[in-house]
Write a structure and sequence with these properties.
By secondary structure, the protein is mainly alpha-helical. It is built from 12 helices and no strands.
Length: 239
């Protein structure tokens, strides 16, 4: 599944293709939960349209692999559909959609990471190349923006912006998985610590520690990268 595609037939549900879906799409978690309770098919179509790009972007950050990100984002929606189809309308109405959906996504990403760790077939260099190669596919999504002053002053030229995003993606990917997850959920998805604790199954204090350490590690990595860039530029000028 590429960003922008519909939900694949493997979801075992009818696809709904209607322009009215966009103009009448529910706004916010509560409205989406109400739509799922009222009409599961239409509500799920709205859910998929609203979240498929963000799920892909999240999975790309967590795995560094475009193909794995596609597979895992699709599987998240498949599992969401299967679960929702067993819920009563009342349970769907009471659902906190975003934390619930990310619980599914995080569990799938963790399972994938464990399988990669056991196989030992993917190197850090390969992950960094994969992260850099496809960041342009998600950079226009709101979920792809990291609200940090390091990006606020980035040059407007599209090539330089892409290079900055590729570097940031590789640095984020190099963080330990718990820190990368906390930074992504906190600073990219904008979740509060209570929501992240719900998603990850960790105590709030642990989540805060992971997010703080991850942000510090990322900041130091950015500073080191800037120092390397400055050194390269200085070396080029002396030639």
């Amino acid at each position: 599944m590429r960003p922008g595609d519909g939900v694949a037939p493997s979801c075992s549900r009818p696809l709904i293709h209607s322009d009215s879906l966009v103009s009448h799409a529910p706004d916010g978690d509560a409205a989406l939960a109400a739509a799922l309770a009222r009409d599961l098919n239409a509500g799920f179509e709205w859910l998929a349209r609203a979240w498929q790009n963000r799920l892909y972007a999240f999975m790309l950050r967590m795995t560094g692999s475009p193909s794995d990100a596609e597979e895992l984002a699709q599987e998240t929606l498949v599992r969401a559909w299967r679960a929702l189809s067993t819920y009563s309308p009342q349970r769907r109405r009471e659902l906190s959609v975003r934390p619930w959906l990310f619980q599914i996504a995080v569990n799938l990403a963790r399972n994938k990471a464990r399988s990669i760790s056991r196989s030992g077939t993917v190197s850090l260099d390969e992950l960094e190349r994969s992260a850099g190669r496809d960041m342009s596919e998600v950079e226009e999504s709101p979920a792809a923006r990291i609200p940090d002053e390091d990006l606020a002053g980035a040059p407007e030229a599209s090539l330089e912006r892409r290079q900055r995003l590729e570097t940031l993606a590789a640095l984020l990917l190099a963080l330990p998985e718990p820190h990368r997850l906390a930074v992504t959920l906190r600073h990219v998805e904008g979740m509060n610590y209570t929501a992240i604790a719900e998603v990850t199954g960790l105590p709030v204090g642990t989540v805060k520690s992971h997010a703080s350490r991850g942000a510090m590690e990322l900041r130091r990595a950015i500073e080191r990268e800037r120092a390397r860039e400055a050194y390269r530029e200085e070396t080029e000028l002396k030639r």
